Structures are given as structure tokens and as C-alpha cells.
Amino acid sequence: MSTTKVSNALCRKYKSTLIEMMEPVEAEIVYPDFRARYESLFKARAIYANKVLNKHLTQNILPGIALYDALLNDGRSQTEAITMFERFNRIYYRKLTSAYRLLGKLPMFYSLLRIMTKKSMSVTYPCTGWTTTWLENSASAIAFDVSCCFYQNVLRCYQREELLKCFCQIDDEVYGNMSRNVIWARTKTLGRGDQVCDFQFIRERSK
């Protein structure tokens, strides 16, 4: 994403997702408010030395806040706006969910997941934004705790910490049924008030 202006491609995707989620006429009311709020947040944003953190901020967190605020401004209660934001995310991340389910059919998927997860946590979720404690990365299970989260810290700064559980829920959508050979076994999340997000992928061996 450009460091000087919002992404038109992202905004188009948000608009098309809104149209799919609600009546087109209603989407035409919510979208301009979302766009204006997103541009305002984008211009006033903090800029981090780590480019990965900037990407999380500008592509996920700020547009999420902007959409939530637009839904509230359209007269919805906080509960209604959160429910709609969760529904929006299910649609918005549908391709990612489908991609994981396609990969999940591969015989060697668990071995691939071990490599992908380890690399992802070091590159996409760096220690400058997340505190990750690895517990296991074996032939039986992948497990690690996240005790400090960039999303939580940023949302707290914007006084929108209630959205954290929505971002946590994206993991449940993507990983929940990605493979019959891997069980997604997370039981705790920072977004639900726990001290850690306890990420767990358990290998389900064929009987």
C-alpha cells in the first residue's frame, strides 16, 4: 500500500463486500462514511520503522476501525456494529479461507503448515509487534502463546479495543475447518480477555 494515500483497490474490495453483506442502497450510504473516516485515520496515523507493522495498520486495523465507526454512525448499536463487522470479515477473508482449505487437502499439509507457521510468525508477526512464546513445533502439534499483540495495542490507542475479538475471530474462520488432518484447538484469545492467545494446531493422524 502507498505510504502517501489510501489504497483504491482496498476501498473497492470493501465496497463490494459491503454490497454483498447488505442491501446495495444501504451500502451506498455506509461506504462514503467509511471512505472518509479511513482517509482521515490514514492521514493522521503513526508511521513505524517496521514496514510490516505499517501494513497491518493501513490494510487491516485502520480500515476495520473506519468501517466500525461508519456502521455506528449509521445508527447501529455497538453490538449490532460488531456483529456486522464479524459478518463482513467472513466475506472479506473468504478467499483466504478457501485457499487454506484447498491446501488442507494435500497429504503433506501438516508438514507444510509447520514451515508456514514458523516463517509467518517471524516475518508477518515480528517481535516488534508481537510477543510469541513457542511451546511446540513437532510432528504431533504446533503450539505457541501470544501475550502481546500489535492489534490490541493499536486498538487500545484508538479506544476501539472491543474490535480485537473480531480480528481474533478471523483466525477461527480461516483455520477452523481447513483440514480433516489438523485440529484448530485454540481456547484462549486476548480479544476475549484472556492473558494470551494460545495458538494450537494438532495433527489428526489417520486411523
Structural write-up:
The structure is a single chain. The protein is globular, with a radius of gyration of 18 Å. A four-stranded antiparallel β-sheet has the order 1-2-4-3. The chain has eight helices and four strands; from the N terminus they run ααααααββααββ. With 207 residues, it is an alpha+beta fold. The mean pLDDT is 95. It folds into two domains: 8-92, no CATH class; 106-203, no CATH class. It has helices spanning 8-21, 24-43, 51-73, 78-92, 94-103, 109-123, 150-157, 164-175; strands at residues 131-137, 141-148, 182-184, 197-203. Helix content is 57%, strand content 12%.
How would you summarize the topology of this molecule?
Blueprint: H1 8-21, H2 24-43, H3 51-73, H4 78-92, H5 94-103, H6 109-123, E1 131-137, E2 141-148, H7 150-157, H8 164-175, E3 182-184, E4 197-203
Antiparallel strand pairs: 1-2, 2-4, 3-4
Instruction: Please tell me the total number of domains.
Output: 2
Mean pLDDT: 95
Number of H- or I-type helical stretches: 8
User: What is the β-strand count?
Assistant: 4
Determine Rg (CA atoms, Å).
Answer: 18 Å
**Beta-strand percent range:** 5-15%
Largest sheet: 4 strands, antiparallel
Strand order of the largest sheet: 1-2-4-3
Helix-strand string: HHHHHHEEHHEE
List keywords for this structure.
207 residues; alpha+beta; four-stranded antiparallel sheet; 4 strands
